[in-house]
Every structure is written in structure tokens, then in C-alpha cells.
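ARCHIVE CARD
Drawer: 12
Card no.: 0347
Subject: one protein chain, sequence and derived structure
Cross-reference: see card 0346
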Amino acid sequence: MGTWLEKQRNLMDFALSSLVRRKLKNLGLLALYTLIVFLLASVMFFTHALRREALLVLEGAPEITVQRVVAGRHDLMPTPYVAMIEDIRGVASVQTRLWGYYYDGVVGANYTLLVPPGTSPTARRDDPHGPGETPAVEGEAGPPTSPVGSLVGSLVADLDLGALAPGTIVIGAGVARMQHRQTGDTMAFRASDGSLLPLRVGAVFSSASELVSSDLIVLTEPDFRRLFGIARDYVTDVTVSVRNPREVAMVAGKISRQLPDTRPIVRDEILRTYDSVFNWRSGILVVILSAAVLAFVIFAWDKASGLSAAERREIGILKAIGWETGEVIQMKFWEGATVSLAAFFAGVILAYVHVFFTSAAVFAPVLRGWSVLYPAFDLTPFVSVEQLITLFFLTVVPYAVATMVPAWRAATIDPDAAMRQAE
């Protein structure tokens, strides 16, 4: 065993010296190889990290969200629907929600406006699961801040901001940045009747919750209804809590049959949708990068199959002085392993820094989607063994095959013939 290890060490030393003798050629190959690994690893790390964050956020989503649909479009729901849903067997509680989107033509951004659930007279507060987590507000005491537990729009979980005074709003950090507003300033909104509705900024959500609160504006129910001209007997949608989690699909079916103009959305459907969206977006980048990967494979194969005259002469001399075919192949294996592993680890480390320390500045616009109000957030570092194994087989194995086959061909020919071919 010791003799075999000593032999492999000597072969590695010779392989490294051989690489150094052709350093310019190998440095160019290493740089290109590292770039390919970096691009693929960045897409993989960023996609999986975003998917993981989304799954954590969606854990706080309602079990069932019921929306009214008219002509295939989401419409306001009459409050009598609430009592009808409450009477369905298996329903534990029903809570109404008021939320919507407001377009700011000055900055060209959409804001998400939300009335804290539980403040509406039609809402029930007997949810057995208790209130959801609340995005922390700067300057106020509260629970530890976390980007999970609350969702925006139709995925918003329960917010318990306390008694929000009329004429006062709480805005997300992204809105504050874009509008250059801080606590105590005033923001003016144009209501549905054309009048201006000035609202004072009472607080700003902490940047720690920016993943879900960047474009969020929380306001009172009277201000919301006045801004959008919504009557008191209408709400945006309702959320339903089910007594037995195994009966969620059955309760959703009952709601759909009793209220045919509604669309119950269960949490599992939202999870599948988000998973599909991230797979689709990452697939776009993988397809784009496939051309670069293909070009690298062709380059590696051409480099390996077209051994230079110096390499052929070197192999011929090694065979002439007594090296066996297996030893030549092992030496070439260590050459390829050195280049491929160096590129693999360098690319993975650079991708890790790029994704988790610079928020994936290169790929973020494609994978996050388009928006004017991008949230500024740091992804939680997450790299699984499965990701590394997949990346290894996508990048290292093809190169190893591309280098070993030509080396074997050159090592099996006669030494004199190899040296004559090198002349």
C-alpha cells in the first residue's frame, strides 16, 4: 500500500510539473473551465436558495384562500359569502381580507396595499392557529424579525399591527427608499374619485422583513375603502382555516360547490405554482448557458484529442525509458484531475460568494422576475450535497472523459512511432 501511494505521489509531482511547463495553455483552460462552473453553480445555488425561502414563507400562508371570480377575473366578494362559508362543515374559522394594488405613475412602481386582517367588522378572530408572524417595524418593540410568516397580496398571512390610527400608514423599506420617505412624512394617493388622500407614515417595516414587505403599505379599513371606492359590504377575499388538515381538499370542494362563482386556492397549489415558476426561470438560464457549456465541451475535447507535438514526444520518451501504458494514463489522469478539481472548487467558491454575498447580482433580475421595487435582502446560505454532486457530474466528468480517451490512444502506440509523429 505504501509503495502504491508513493508511486501515485510521484506521478502527481510529474503531472504538476508537466502542467507548469505548459502554463499559458493550461491557465487559459482553467479560466474558461472556472467560468463555466461559476455560471452553472450560481444558477443552481440561487434557484435553490430562492425556492427554500419561498417554501419557508409559504408555511405561513392560509390553508384555503377563497376568491370570487367573474368572467375569469378576480372580483370583490360580497360579505354574505362569509356566513355561507362559515356554515360549511369542517370550517374552523373564516377571516376577511382587504388588499389591492396601487400604481404610482411618478416612479412607475406598483404598491401592495393591505388592511391588517382582524380589523374589519366582518372578520372572525377565533382562528385556532393564532396570528401569523408580523414584519417588524423600526422603532417599535415586537417579536424577532423574520422574512417568513407573512405574504403579500393574496398570500398575505395575518398581521397584527395593533391599533393603526386613521390617516396613518406603515410602509415597506422599498417604498421608503423609492419615495424618500421616513416616519412622520406624508404620502399622497389619488383616490378612485380623483381626490387626493394624504396619509402620514407612522412607521417603516424593518429591512429584515424586506423579502415580503418591500412594496407593502398597511393602512386602515376606512382609508382603504375611500382610496379604492369599495363599499362596506364587499371584501377582497377570505381565508379559511380547517379543523382537520387532512380535510382541506374536501372543504375546498364543498366551498366550490356551494359557491360556484368562487375559486378556493389551497396552500399546496401555491407551493406547486412557486416551484414551477422557479424551475421555469432557472430553466431559461440553463438553456442560455447550454451554448456556453457545449462550446466548452467541444473545446475540451479538441484540446485533449489534439495532443501537441511536445506532449506526444513526452509520451514517447516516457514509454521508451520504461513507463508502462497504465502509468502514462495515470499521469494524464492526475493532470486532468488537477485542472478539473481546481476549476470546480474555484467556480463553486466564486458562485457561493456571488449568490450569498452579492445577492446574485448577475442573475437576480431574471430569476426574481421584473419589477421596479426590488426587495433588498440577503439569502440564507444553503448548499446541499445533492447540488454539489449534480454540478460535479455536469462539469468534471465530461472533461475527465474528454482527456482520458486521447491519452489512452497516445499511450498505446509504439514509442518510436509516437516520437516520429511528434517531429
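Annotation on reverse: The chain is about 50% helix and 15% strand. The first strand starts at residue 64 and ends at 70.
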